[in-house]
# Entry
Amino acid sequence: MRDFSKAKRIVIKIGTNTLTKNGSVDSAYVRQMAGQVDSLLKAGKQVVIITSGAIGMGAGQLSLGTRPGEVRMRQACAAIGQPMLMAEYRKAFEQSGVTVAQVLLTAEVLNNRKTYLNLKNSIETLLKLGVVPVLNENDSVSTDEIGTAFGDNDKLSALVASKLDADLLIMLSDIDALYDKNPRQFPDAKAIPTVFEITAELVRNAGGKGSRFGTGGMKTKLEAARIASNAGCRMVLANGREKDIINRIIAGEEIGTIFMPKRKLSNRARWILNSAAAGVINIDDGAMQAVKNHKSLLPSGVTSVEGTFEAGDVVMLNDKAKAVTNLSSTQIKQLAGKHSTEIRKALGPGHRDVVAIPEDIVFIEY
# Structure
């Protein structure tokens, strides 16, 4: 389980609390981390870093006592803190002769199939050049999604690991491991070394949000583990302040919690599953059973439609699955409950006679 000798592509996520000290980036820590990453590169591995800390750094620079609440102030803090953050990474990696590249993302980039694939190609090119991409959420142009779209970049790190077919996601946090209950409230809480399935009980026992500058919590880390699992990617959650933590994880030391993958979906299926749904198509039991049996979704099984969406958008099928729809919400409302042969009569030639094909339907596992 902890044999990472064949892990070629590794994504490392560094949380705000791990990276910073008193509101500023801990330069000594970044240098230590850069040295460990350099040893991975020398061993022939590819590394992508997901970093947090831009808003916290900006808030520290402005001498704000707490994480700013207003969207525009958070945008301002991110704009101030992001170049400071990258300057620390560049300075630390230059000592090893390693080039780093900044990549800023919003949720929309990952939800749109075209920009999603463009991002994948860009990062693939950087990795082939021996560059270490450093990714962060583009908070300075985000609006109400700041701190919620990716959950202190926990979800973002898993989406990137999934997108790049990474072999391992290392999540460095101020949390030692996943516990059977909240260790801050229960002194007898025990660390869980290995997780094979993210159960409802594990989710219930997960704590809330993190510190004053961080937004992530154990729930977002479990969500990240689920995303990584669908990509067949192992994830290790560990305390980022432990000495030589990255090298110790790669060496197979039983430290933190390892989440084992349960299934591996295709790249397209993962994109569908991880994209925000533009609406909901409610279907009857017969239609749900048909799509479970790898059949197309026909308009005859549709009972109602929620939201407004276009053909090609990702939608929910009840609360059980996600799908790429061949028809718009307006068209589906017009054809709901009708036989497939009526589609061409109603919409004219050139339209498919199904709402979604099996290859574009992915069931959600809870």
Remarks:
- The first strand starts at residue 9 and ends at 14.
